[in-house]
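Format notes (please read before filing issues)

Several people have asked whether sequences and structure tokens are stored in separate files. They are not. Every record keeps both together, in the order shown below: the sequence lines, then the token lines. Line labels are part of the format and must not be stripped during preprocessing.
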Amino acid sequence: MSTLVTKQLCNKYAEYATKVLYSELTKTSPPPPPSPLSLSSGQDQDHHPLKCPLFVTWNKNGNLRGCIGTFAPQSLPDGVRKYALIAALDDPRFPPITKDELPHLECHVTLLHSFEDITSSPLDWQVGVHGVHISFSKRGRHYSATFLPQVAPEQGWTKEETMDQLLAKAGYPGSWHAVVNDLQQLNVERYRGEIGHFSSL
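Then the structure lines:
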């Protein structure tokens, strides 16, 4: 996967996601998706991914306003359109974004790739390079959580602090070092992602 093409892909789809939300909130005609040629610098359509896992993030004045995605590969542009609206209107942590907020929004679209199961140390990943997904069981209950590659450096977290925050996000109490040996069926996965940005129309 070409980094240049993927970065361009994310930027174009961040713009597209913003237009999708604008049309939804203003009740105007939905935007056409980006053309394959505009996404791939004139190359053939096969040079950019047609399906991939993705997350759409909305920020307002630098603060998180919604972020939802999926690890299941999504067809582009359908997946971007779907999760642009879910992240904006159905993130349970926030009230739905309103039309009045549109001028203050920034959209990030992150396309995920290079998934790898970590079979050695759960800390075998790099801050600022990898996203991390954990899943485990404890007393018959299943827990899971993820952070995208950009989250740890944005927050200034170390690897250990990131793992602590993942446990908290999953709803499990305790620090990573205190509980890591007690977790059942622990799976840690690292992945990479390219992120695109677009400010409000």
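For reference, the curators noted about this record: Residues 1-5, 41-47 have pLDDT under 50 and may be disordered. The domain at 114-191 is CATH 3.30.1490.150 (Dna Ligase; domain 1).
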